[in-house]
Design a protein that fits this description.
The complex is a heterodimer of chains A (351) and B (288). With 351 residues, chain A is mainly alpha-helical. Chain A contains 15 helices and 2 strands. In chain A, strands 1-2 form a two-stranded antiparallel sheet. Chain A is globular and about 75 Å long. Chain B has 288 residues and is mainly alpha-helical. Chain B has one domain: MetI-like (MetI-like fold). Chain B has 12 helices and 2 strands; from the N terminus they run H-H-H-H-E-E-H-H-H-H-H-H-H-H. Chain B has a two-stranded antiparallel sheet with strand order 1-2. The chains are: A mainly alpha (351), B mainly alpha (288). Chains A and B meet through helix 2, helix 5, helix 6, helix 7 and helix 9 of A and helix 1, helix 2, helix 3, helix 4 and helix 5 of B.
Chain lengths: 351, 288
């Protein structure tokens, strides 16, 4: 019986009962369950209803606010770009005739590219590190590392943004940016250290601890007998990891990656400090320099332009960005739930 | 690969090292000033962080508790419960910036203006919408799904024998829930609440949008006197996170050592909270 044992009708089943005539189902005499419990139950239901209504209201409100821009721009919202000129036009337009045609492709690509870059690097480092912690590290070091990683995962994002601005951006500027580069692209934008590369690096710093700690949990959850079976067959340690542990922990690792992706997509503050704030379309035909170009991911756009929210057009646009983020986040959450459900079924638990 | 991890940890320690250098500048002196490099301490942002956390958890905890109890014990398994659980999961994956945007827009509606004070803008139109109360409520909304899920998980670990024992002794459903389930899951509930507080402390996007970036408390001065408390709550201020953002080169700061000092304080606070969680988790285990 699960916690649902409090739910159903107040029925008791007795497997063995002294009097044979009374075998079978026996209903409790005073049906306190069916009467409910008066005031506390009502309070509980009201409060729960408030929270659930709040959640639903948020969804509806965001799409409602974004609706003017969504309707005016249609599918162009996702396929055209030129965000900077559009938003300054929109800010100066009046409320009666707001400029509502927006193309958010540059922003969306910015989000996707920075997050993907950060994810790729973070997964490579993270899974390797979690294997190292679980398998190769002596126990004392392993528990110390785990505690440190858990602490790193809970550090607020501003601190990472601060490190980014103070350390990463100047480093990139000194190492990679030359004056020729700046002169060449001066007509389009100014190449400082704040760039796509900086955002990707800062995002990587932020999501690596998350990936490591969740992957460590997943790998430690693999039963010891699996490893011992592999060793008993004469497999080397590396083969045991590659062929047995990783596939078994696969669902946990995938859900950690999804969670990290969710954090990366939604990360606004740290990215807005290092991204450069120019909403251009990331274009890789120029080669390596494109990594040094500024970028404006969706969430950073919301932060940067939020002071202009008094204008209806700008507000609608920011809500459109928020709606896109919401949809992305929803997809990731649903994906994580599906992975979790598949993992449970694979291991044999009932739902 | 272990060296990759160690490199990263070294980077973080280095960061704390920089913080320590500027730790001498800030030992809880009152009110920060925006002027120059020897601007004062971080008392006001720390009070701001504290205020927001209290408001957020006070609003969120009853709602989460009620929702978790409802989901565990009162709702029938079915389409409605599935929908509610999905909604909670989706909301927990929503970026905080989206929640902040939602809050800023909603709290500028005139009928919610009791929560903040009006500001005259150039066009003569009054604007509301940023205050401690607003930011606190937004924080509560942000941590609501997270705390609900965590309380629900700890409620599920209550062994059924406890519940059945209490029911068989004739207790009503509500007495069973309140006296047995909630008490026995109490360490888990407290852990969830503390983790929620940790998230509130660390969140910047909501604070930046819903609280503004002023360094002092606006509102009637002096702000610590009880008759001015309501005015303080209705006005803007700053928290540690906003202070870091503001004084970093990305904000308007020209001296960023104070930002490092503030981030050291922030990291220490979060460290203490995590330690409290670990201690409480251990207590919970020994109680059983």
């Amino acid at each position: 019986m699960t916690a649902g044992s409090l739910n159903g009708p107040a029925v008791r089943q007795f497997a063995c009962f002294p009097h044979p005539a009374l075998k079978g189902e026996y209903v409790l005499k005073n049906n306190t369950f069916l009467h409910g419990d008066g005031l506390p139950a009502v309070c509980i239901k009201i409060l729960a209803g408030i929270s659930i209504a709040l959640i639903i209201f948020i969804f509806i409100f965001i799409f409602y606010q974004a609706w003017p821009v969504l309707r005016a721009s249609g599918l162009d919202l996702l396929t055209t770009h030129n965000f900077d000129t559009q938003i300054s036009e929109a800010f100066y337009s009046s409320d009666q005739s707001p400029v509502l045609n927006f193309g958010l492709l540059g922003l969306i690509l910015g989000t996707l590219i920075t997050t993907t870059l950060a994810l790729v690097i973070a997964v490579a480092i993270g899974i390797g590190a979690s294997i190292a912690i679980c398998e190769f590290a002596p126990p004392v070091l392993a528990s110390a590392l785990k505690a440190i990683i858990r602490l790193l995962a809970s550090i607020p994002s501003v601190v990472f943004g601060l490190i980014g601005v103070i350390a990463v951006v100047p480093y990139i500027q000194e190492t990679f940016v030359t004056v020729d580069m700046q002169m060449e692209y001066l007509s389009m934008f100014q190449i400082t250290g704040k760039s796509l590369m900086a955002s990707a690096v800062v995002l990587t710093f932020m999501i690596v601890p998350t990936v490591i700690s969740l992957s460590v949990d997943a790998i430690s959850a693999v039963p010891q007998t699996y490893r011992e079976t592999g060793f008993a067959f004469g497999m080397t340690h590396f083969r045991v990891i590659w062929k047995i542990l990783l596939p078994t922990a696969r669902s946990g690792i995938i859900s950690s990656v999804i969670l990290a992706a969710g954090r990366g997509i939604g990360e606004a503050i740290a990215v807005s400090m290092v991204c450069g704030g120019v909403g251009i379309l990331p274009d890789f035909s120029h080669g390596f320099v494109s990594f040094l170009a500024p970028v404006l991911p969706l969430s950073a756009a919301i932060v940067n332009k939020s002071e202009a929210m008094s204008s209806v057009a700008v507000r609608s646009t920011l809500f459109a960005c928020a709606a896109i983020l919401l949809v992305m986040g929803a997809f990731l959450s649903i994906g994580a739930r599906l992975v979790e459900r598949r993992m449970r079924r694979a291991v044999g638990f009932e739902k | 690969m272990v060296t990759a991890v160690c490199l990263f940890i070294v980077l973080n320690v280095f960061n704390i090292g920089i913080d320590v250098i500027s730790w001498d500048f800030l030992t809880k002196e009152p009110n920060p000033s925006a002027v120059n490099a020897d601007s004062g301490g971080i008392l006001t942002p720390m009070i701001g962080t504290f205020l927001l956390t209290i408001i957020g958890i006070v609003i969120a905890l009853p709602l989460s508790l009620a929702s978790a109890v409802y989901l565990c014990y009162y709702s029938k398994d079915g389409a409605l419960k599935n929908m509610i659980t999905t909604a909670i999961d989706i909301l927990s994956g929503v970026p905080t910036i989206v929640i902040a945007l939602f809050a800023v827009t909603i709290f500028t509606q005139p009928w919610l203006s009791f929560l903040s004070t009006p500001i005259e803008t150039a066009g003569g139109v009054q604007a509301y919408g940023k205050s401690f109360l607003v930011a606190g409520i937004t924080m509560a909304v942000m941590i609501l799904p997270f705390v609900t899920k965590s309380i629900e998980q700890s409620l599920k670990t209550v062994p059924d024998e406890y519940l059945e024992g209490s029911l068989s002794l004739g207790a009503t459903k509500w007495r069973t829930i309140s006296r047995v389930a909630l008490l026995s899951a109490r360490p888990g509930i407290i852990t969830g609440a503390i983790l929620g507080m940790g998230r509130i402390i660390g969140d910047t996007a909501i604070v930046w949008l819903a609280l503004g970036g002023t360094l002092r408390m606006t509102g009637l001065q002096p702000w610590w006197q009880p008759q001015n408390w309501l005015s303080t709550l209705q006005n803007t201020g700053s928290t540690l996170t906003t202070y870091i953002f503001y004084t970093s080169p990305a904000g308007e700061g020209n001296s960023y050592e104070v930002a490092f000092g503030a981030s050291l304080v922030l990291i220490v606070i979060i460290l203490l909270l995590n330690a409290a969680t670990a201690v409480l988790g251990g207590l919970g285990k020994t109680k059983r």
